[in-house]
Design goal:
Length: 88
């Protein structure tokens, strides 16, 4: 497996699954999402669109940093969401 595929796999796990799942659980529990575009209906399509768009941009312009940025964003957002869940 190439390094790029490995990094994109981690990006999908942290941002695409971790952040999405914890955001969904927080919204379901009645917590307010900071992003006004995010709702139960828009969460998965918007997250998928971001992942696809950033993947295309990174391949087109050879931006090897893109999956790393998503990994960091996914981990930070997931931890933040878990923290907020613990406050309920």
């Amino acid at each position: 497996m190439s390094q790029s595929k490995f990094l994109w796999g981690i990006a999908i796990a942290s941002y695409g699954i971790g952040d999405t799942l914890t955001t969904y659980l927080n919204i379901s529990a009645g917590m307010k999402e900071l992003n006004p575009l995010i709702s139960h209906q828009s969460l998965i399509p918007l997250k998928a669109a971001v992942l696809i768009l950033l993947y295309i941009v990174s391949k087109r312009y050879s931006l090897k940093l893109m999956p790393l940025l998503l990994i960091v964003a996914g981990i930070v957002c997931t931890i933040w969401n878990l923290y907020n869940m613990s406050l309920r």
